[in-house]
Amino acid sequence: MKSGKPDMPVYAPIDPDESMDALGHRIQRYARSRHPALVDDQGTLDWGDLVTQANRIANRLRVAGLQPGESVAALSGNSREDIALFLGVLVAGGCMVPLSGMASAEALALMVADCRARFLFVSGTQQALLSPVRDQLTDLAEDRIISLAGPLAGAGHTLADWLASTSAETDPVPVTLDHPFNIIYSSGTTGTPKGILHDYRFRQRQMVRMSRYGLDSEAINLVSTPLYSNTTLVSVLPTLYHGGTLVLMAKFNAHRFLELAETHRVTHAMLVPVQYQRILAEPDFDRFDLSSFKLKLCTSAPLRSAVIADAMARWPGNLREVYGLTEGGISTSLDCAAHPDKWDSVGVPTQGAEVRVIGEDGRELPRGATGEIVGRAISMMRGYVNRPEQTRDMLWTSPEGDVFYRSGDMGRIDEDGFIYILDRRKDMIISGGFNVYPVDLEKVLLAHPAVADATVIGIPSDQWGETPLGLVVVRPGQAASETAILEWANRQLGKTQRLAAIEFRASLPRSAIGKVLKRELRAPYWAGN
After folding, report:
1. What pTM was computed for the model?
2. What is the CATH number of domain 252-424?
């Protein structure tokens, strides 16, 4: 990364009269506030103390040589130190790069090199990940690796020692809408990491849009997904921008989530589908007072209509499903209270967004037809870091000359303009020449009373090329057999959809934000094919 404006394309529509209110500058107005900023296992940190800590980090980074636009990486978790660091990097004019604790050590080393990180901050819980590749981080001297809490083998300083007597003087570095804000890495568990660069334009617009959902100074936002995920930042950043309160969970636990929600009178939460399922399945869910909730948000994957119905019936406050890409471009929202007849959809495009569906030949399809979803919106990434070809590969240009992002998701748009997601394009199964969408089969399996969790993958077939296999987690105490579930499901499926087999699993592998890792599940079946 070069300092200053990144040498990358901008695909978001530009407004020459757009105003700028950078987050690192904006938080200075809260410097004397005693309003709670963060609540975690250590207690409550007010806004005045958080701003002081952020300014100290910013000043120390600048003294240590950080230039505007340069990257600062963090391998940590959901903690007050991590929030202070994120804000401090922005105050210093740097680009924040939160790294996934789910990544392999080799992938982490690639990410640190790819973003040209000038500093790396590591929490005590992530030490083991760093150790195997410490000698590969040749561009980072010992004094550029800092432990966020406690001693760290191979680190030059702990955060407390590194800051020492650094001043908390207020001096945010000037930035523009074109300056880099953060890099989010996708595909960090396996494969080559891909860095998604967001500039201030992207985040500024997103923070303003999300504040319309009540993520403002009065919000008490319970954060239970990791800060390295864009899912989390979508709700965390507007809460910080407006001086609200974050309640941080270091690790998600459904019962603990309910305890925190009741104790702190939580108003908002951004959750992923598997979290809704686990929270609503808590035996004592109904004894908790959740009346303070104004809105729950859901993203990362479509939320099943049965789960929406359960949440709307038992959990106070509205539920809004959000669909989009970390790259931006696609942005839809479903107001569940307003559209109970559309709970199988992900809603309609948000203000300033446009969604279309295209076929394999790249031509736009009519409403009702199934194809790949593409979109454009007011928030669109600058591109993949150091990967111009991959950036170009995800672009689709409309007949009018507008640039859209390809989602990789298969879906359709109904007559009312609501978008329905069927599956990832790469997860679609082509069996005997027919397109089979695993989500359709999974809905059937999940309706079986003995099934707690399920997914469907394509496996090799001599007869059909590939064929669907159901992987099922059975509810405790249930005695259903694989054969019985297979026969039950296939009676409800079309001839071209029928499952070849059912296999029981103790659990399904998921990412930190709850997505089933289908590539990991498919790998053993396709080895050697």
Report:
1. 0.87
2. 3.40.50.12780
